[in-house]
Every structure is written in structure tokens, then in C-alpha cells.
Amino acid sequence: MALFTINRYLGDEEEKESTSESRSKALLAKLQKQAKAREQQSLATKEQLTVQDADTTQITSGKKKRKPEKVEEEENKQHKKKKKRKEKEESTEQLEDANGISVSVEAAEKAITGTLPKKKKIKDKNKAVIKEEEQDTNHPSEENAEAVEETTGDGVEAKESQETANGHPDPSDTEPGKISSDNSFQILGGYMKKRVQKVQRVLPKWLAEPDMIEKDIKSNLVTLSDVAGICPALQKKLEAKGIHSFFPVQAEVIPAILETVNSGLLIGQGGYRPRDICVSAPTGSGKTLAFVIPVIQALMMRVVCEVRALAVLPTKELAEQVYKVFCSYAEGTDLKVVMAAGQKSFAAEQATLTETRGRRCRSLADIVVATPGRLVDHINKNESFSLQHLRFLIIDEADRMIDSMHQAWLNQVIKAVYKSGSGTDTSVFKRVEPGPITVASLSVPQMPLQKLLFSATLTQNPEKLQQLGLHQPRLFSSTHTSTQNSTHTEEKFDFPQGLTEYYVPSTMNKKPLLILHFLLRLKYKPVLCFTNSREAAHRLFLLLKFYGGVEVAEFSSRLSPTERQKTLKSFEQGKIAMLISTDAAARGIDIKGVKCVINYDAPQYIRTYIHRVGRTARAGQAGVAFTFLLAIQMKRFQKMLLNAGSPGLQKHVVKPQHLSGLESRYEEILVELGEAIKVKAFKMLNLLHTSTSVTVCAHSE
Ligand SMILES: Nc1ncnc2c1ncn2[C@@H]1O[C@H](COP(=O)(O)OP(=O)(O)OP(=O)(O)O)[C@@H](O)[C@H]1O
């Protein structure tokens, strides 16, 4: 007895037949029937074609009835012209034939192939009809001319072939804008201008629906004990440093990170890899503590010293700032924090990172704070530097760090993290670069690497974020981006609550007087003033220094890292009334007590603006920002701020009489400055000349 019966469906008729022979017979009969039907159909079509060719006038009149009067008139005019042209052509053709001087293309083709092309055959038939009619009437009517035109050419042929192929009329005949008054060719596209449909912006769910962070710091403080998971020792330390409650971003993000280490550092919650965390919160909202506290809390019970947390920042100054915060909270624990940002020589940094005794290397750091360049140097040149136990990768100023991805620093870090992934290691420290989840990949738990991203202007561009290779990211944000009706491409950002923004209409010549007015007459000190280039910062610094009256300093790449460090310290201590800086101090720098930011040169990009003005109004405090705008910059700047979600930009007009008192001294200063620059340039030239001649002498010796 057969175990299985396979039934094949062969149609209703076949189902009735039981034997295979009868089934195939039935199938054959069916196929024959179909073939016969098709034969008959094609015969009928041929007959129809002949009838149509013979009686073109009838078809034309039938078609004509369907056309509106205006179209008909237009067509008649066109056809009259064409008819005349055709008659002319035909007469020349006939003449040429009669004289035997020229041979037409069709005749040549016929001579070669023995047949005429299909289209030409129809055309010839029609020509014959015209000739007959001409013989009859000697004056062809407009109707006849139209009939000739309508039945000749591709229009009819295409229509017929379409009808026979599909069994439906050609839709191009019924579509407006596609009917050609001249059917000798077929128009494929319409003339109508169509509005291009805007593409709806669709964000991934994690970006579109973030965990919301309250914007108002002051009215949303959370007491330290209300945030779960922080040990009493750390709470004490916070209080000792004047932190009595957490800011909203800290109250949301700290528990979320601590939750991912509930089951220990080696595996994520429930054995799963923890989700990466992205935080987008305004400048000065306390993002640094939002990662420092949970990382210290998670690592403080560690037994072996290995690099478990790595914070990457774009500049030396920022790295140093974050390093100091880590150090202050790691104090009293076994944790060792090391900075690798190029402040010291490579060898000196290497000595603080690793130690080699005999053939054994060991890490001297639990937490490393680095800039991308130096980090890559240590990965490539320091063999003892290992990231194989890295648990947290913190990327601060994440949007800026994405822009520096061309340096491929992240790839190098990831490579170093999964370096030991040979597949033979079966310990819990085994690390294999995560791929698609399979039973095999889940069978051995491995220590996860979790990325923590922070920025005040985190990009919402999924394409850019994708470069970071995030794992099921979770976003904490104070701005909600609606996915509904969001066809615009502008990104919205959050501005600090205590910030008041002004623009000051100005001209190029008035800008130096304006800055003098703000510095000498208004009580906004200390002021942080931004220019768009280091040359501009230096010129302005010289001008204000020559003018005198207040202490000013410059901050740019013109200074060495040590000079910059000193300058920042003096500014923080209140020894400098105005710091003139390039965008080197625009991001992340936390200087307490900055009451006012002045954009001497208007920033070109919204992100630059947000970070610059974010140096004031920090930690829920109040602050003002002024931007000097030339008339030509006004419209674009206002639009840029409006699109970014600025709460309001106000106009601040400085009356000319306020500046007039400063003018005479300013003129004198310009002369003095010119002299000084000349002397300086002369000295520089002299110096250059001496050094060149010394070199030449040395070479000649
Ligand atoms: N809970 C808190 N209570 C009091 N002050 C705090 C608290 N948290 C942070 N601060 C202070 O707020 C200031 C700004 O914090 P932080 O530098 O972390 O801001 P940020 O969000 O990183 O800013 P930016 O985006 O500009 O880098 C710092 O001086 C910090 O000491």
C-alpha cells in the first residue's frame, strides 16, 4: 500500500478521468481546440484588416464622429498642409519614376529583399486609394485627406497590434495629452507639467520616538536618593562636590545605563547584548555626569585592572575636562583613570597606560580618556595596550566625532576590541564581532561592548548614525521629531532655557566699535567672543589690547596647548574680561560664570551657533548671546535659527551716539596698530633673513 498519494491538479475535465492515458488524451484535445480557436481568430483579424484597408473612408467617418469640433478644425488645417506636401512629393516621385532617373528607397529595398516592409505596404495601399479617388474626382476632399493620414503610419498599426495582443484598446488613445493630431507618429509623454511629489521623511522608530528628557532643569531636579542603583559612597561624593540633586538628563540616563549592568559586566540583562544609548540634550544640561557616574558605579567593584571604559573626545581641552571629572569621582576607589590626548609625549603616555615586567604586560588604566589621533597611535604602536576587555565606549560630542570618521578611528577601536576572536577561546571573555543572531552565536555568552553617545546637536540622519554601527539604539532626547507631515529636512535642536538671544545690526566698519562698546560700557563680563578665523581673532585681540582699559586674551590654534591651558585657567579665575576665540572653544568647554557670548563673526552653521552660545546659560543659569549681523546676513541667519527651533531672536540696536565717543581713540589705535605691525613684520623679516643666511653659511661650510 502506498504511503503517500500525490494528486496533480489538471483542470476540471481531467479530474474526472482516472487513467493517465485518458488524461493525456483530454489534454491533447484541449490544446488542439485552443490552437483551432487561435487560428480562426487570426483569420478573422486578417479579414478585418483587408476590409478596413479597402474602405478607409468609412472608418474615417466613424472616427470623426467621436472628435470634438475644435480638434477637428485644427486637424483639418494640418492635414490640408500635409496633403499639399504629399501631393508635391508624389508628383516628383512619379516624375522621377517616369523618367527612370532615380530609384526610390522602397524600390531598392524590394530589389534586395523581394518584399516591401509592412508599413510601406499599407502606405502603398493607401496611395493606391488616393490615386483612385484622384482619378474619380480629380480634387480630393479634406475628409479623404484626413482618412489617408489616419490610416497611414504607426498610429493605426500600433493600435491594431495592441488590440490584438491584449484584447483591449490602446490606453494612449483615451489619455488626454496623448492624442496626436498627426498620427504619423505616436507621442509617448504628455505635455502637462506635473508637480513633483515631496518625499515624506520617515525616521526609524528609535529616532522618532525617543525617551523624553525634560527641558527645564530648575523645575525638574531629582534628589540623589531617588535615582536607583547609586551606591551611598558615590552619593556622598556627589554631595561633597555640591551636587544635591540630579538634572533631568542624569535622572533618565544614569538608571538606563546601570540597568544594562544589573547582571554584571560580562553579559547583558537576560543574557542579551545591551542596547547602545544615544543622548541628545542641550548644552550645559549635565551630560558629562550622565555617563561618568554610571561608569564609575559599574566598574568600581572590578578585581583586575583592564581598560573597561574608553571616552573619546574631539579636542585635547575637552579630553582634559572629562578626564578631571572622571578622576574626581574615581577618587577613593581602585579605579585608575588615564588620559591619552597628546598633552604628554607618546612615551610618557605609554608609561601611564601599560607596564611590562619580564614577558608580562599589564594595563595600568581602567578608564581611558582620549582624542582619536592619540588613541589610534596607542592601538597601533603600543603592543601592550589592549582593549579586549572594553565594556563601555563613550563618544562625547558624537556628531562631531561622526564627522571625523574619515580618520577611521572607530574601526581601529572595534578591531582592537575583537582582536582575540579566534573562535577557539571558550571563556566568558571570548569576543566575536557581533553579526546576525543565531543559536550558535547565543550559545556562548560573551562580554558585550556598549556604545554611549552624547551630544547637544546629535544628528537625526540615520545614514550618518549608521556609521557608528549601533546595536538596537535607545535615544534620550529633549526634542521630539514628528514623523507626521515632516517633509522638511531641517533638524530641530534644543536651546538652554536660560538663554536670551539677540542680533545686533551692524556694518563691517562698525563692528570694532560695537565690540568696544560691549566690552567697556556694558556689564556682561566675563565675555566669550567668537570670530570665524584665527587671524580675525588675533587682529581683534591686538585692537582691544592696544585700546586698553580691560584685560583681554586670545584662544586659538596660534597658541601652544600649554598656552591655551593657561589662558583658559586665567579666564575661569576671572582674570580675563574678554576671551577672543575661534571655534576651538565653541564645543563642550565648561567655564563657570560666562555671562555673555558675542558672535563677532556670525557662524555659518546652526550647530556652530548652538555650541558657541551654549558656553553661557549653563546648568540652568541665565545668559545672553549677541550676534553681530551685516545687512546681507540678516535674512539667512534669522531663517536658520527659526528652522532650528530657536525660542526667539530679538533685535538689539546700539545707537550711533553710543559709538561716537569711541571713534577718535579708535582712529588713533588703528595708526598705532599699523606701526606696530610694520615693526613686527620688519623684525620677522630680519629674523627670517638672519636664519636663512646662517643656514646658507652652514651649507657652504
Ligand atoms: N546635578 C548637577 N547639579 C549641579 N550642577 C551640575 C549638575 N550636573 C552638572 N552640573 C554642572 O553643570 C555644568 C554643565 O555640565 P556639563 O559640562 O556636563 O554639560 P554638557 O551637557 O556636557 O554641556 P555641553 O553640551 O556644552 O558639553 C557643569 O559645570 C557641571 O558641573
The outline comes out as: extended
Structural class: alpha/beta
Please compute the radius of gyration using only Cα atoms: 42 Å
Per CATH, the class of the domain at 207-420 and 446-477 reads Alpha Beta
What is the architecture of the domain at 207-420 and 446-477 at the second tier of CATH? Answer: 3-Layer(aba) Sandwich
Provide the spatial order of strands within the biggest beta sheet. Answer: 1-12-4-11-10-5-9-6
Which band does the percent of strand residues land in? Answer: 5-15%
Number of helices: 25
Number of strands: 19
Quote the CATH topology of the domain at 207-420 and 446-477: Rossmann fold
Fraction of residues in H or I helices:
40-55%
Terminal CA distance reads 111 Å
CATH superfamily of the domain at 207-420 and 446-477: P-loop containing nucleotide triphosphate hydrolases
Low-confidence stretches: 11-17, 54-67, 91-180
Molecules bound to protein: adenosine-5'-triphosphate
Largest sheet: 8 strands, parallel
Overall average residue pLDDT: 78
Characterization of this structure:
Residues 40-61 have a biased composition (Polar residues). Strand 7 (354-357) and strand 8 (360-363) form a beta hairpin. Residues 11-17, 54-67 and 91-180 have low confidence and may be disordered. It contains 25 helices and 19 strands. Among the domains are: 207-420 and 446-477, Rossmann fold; 499-662, Rossmann fold. The strands form 4 sheets. The protein has an 8-stranded parallel β-sheet, sandwiched between helices. Helices cover 47% and strands 11% of the residues. By secondary structure, the chain is α/β, with parallel strands linked by helices. Adenosine-5'-triphosphate (ATP) binds next to helix 12.
